[in-house]
Amino acid sequence: MARGVGMMILVNNDLMTRDQATIDIEDRGYQFGDGVYEVVRIYNGVFFELDAHLDRLERSAAEIKIVLPFTQEKLKANLNKLIQQVPVQSGHVYMQVTRGVAPRNHPFPAKTEPVFVAYTKEYEKEPSRSPGRAVFTEDIRWLRCDIKSLNLLGNVLGKQFANEQNVDEAIFHRGEWVTEGSSTNVFIVKNNVLYTHPANHFILDGITRRVILSDANELGIQVEEEAFTKQDLLDSDEVFISSTTQEVRPIVEVNGQPIGTGKEGEITLSLHAKFTSRLR
Ligand code: PDD
Fold this sequence. Notes:
The protein has helices spanning about 30, 50-65, 70-85, 155-165, 205-220, 230-235, 265-280, and strands at about 10, 15, 35-45, 45, 90-100, 115-120, 130-140, 170-175, 175-180, 185-190, 195, 220-225, 240-245, 245-255, 255-260. By secondary structure, the protein is an alpha+beta fold. Strands 7, 8, 9, 10, 11, 12, 13, 14 and 15 form a nine-stranded mixed sheet that branches. It has a six-stranded antiparallel sheet with strand order 2-1-6-5-3-4. It is globular and about 55 Å long. The protein starts with 7 loop residues before the first strand and ends with a helix. The model has no long low-confidence stretch (mean pLDDT about 95). N-(5'-phosphopyridoxyl)-D-alanine (PDD) binds near residues 185, 242 and 244. The site of N-(5'-phosphopyridoxyl)-D-alanine has 15 residues, from helix 5 and strand 13.
């Protein structure tokens, strides 16, 4: 079968097949990772938290001086066209915008035309929610992790390290301080208090993270957006990670050490249940 048969790609304002969608070799996204992206979950054919993701896309772009060549309204209309063409029950849409095409040179010309690409993916099976395991690894990324940049080498190497250890996630730390996962935010629970790193330049302010913090407030769980150490994490009662694709996923072992009882904790379960109830 030819690659991507049945796949439709949104390139700027046009829908096309994968073979029709071509990227210039001097696209700055390709040569410099000069662009930003989003992943939005689709549940029952409907985008989850689309506005929050599009706001974050616009913010990430603005932080690296890319002005999106369309309004959010236009982008939403295009994304709707895309899922009408290729209906998705359970999956996600990946979208990215690069600065555009220019002769290779580090500084960018005053005027380039950003290139936007989006396509959907239907999940063959639902991402695993079963209790997972993680390893610590030093956070070697740049200091603007709040920007959802296409430069993902630090994340890629982190996740690869986790894969090579046969665990599910790499938990990054800067010195003793835990920041986030290679593609997730990290939470711990100690004495019924929920802790997660504050949303500053050291982490991506996850949309799932925001939903969880609001759910925790509704459930009357005390929340502290405060950095914690690797030792705090190992000594905690519960650990979980969150992302668009992993939702709320318990982590029951880190660096071979069981967390709490070594089983998924009650607060994690209640936050997952609350998250799931939003999807109905
Ligand atoms: N990753 N932190 C990092 C480094 C991430 O890459 C992600 C998401 C998150 C969670 O953000 P959100 O809840 O908005 O998905 C935190 C996406 C899913 C990815 O790169 O595939």
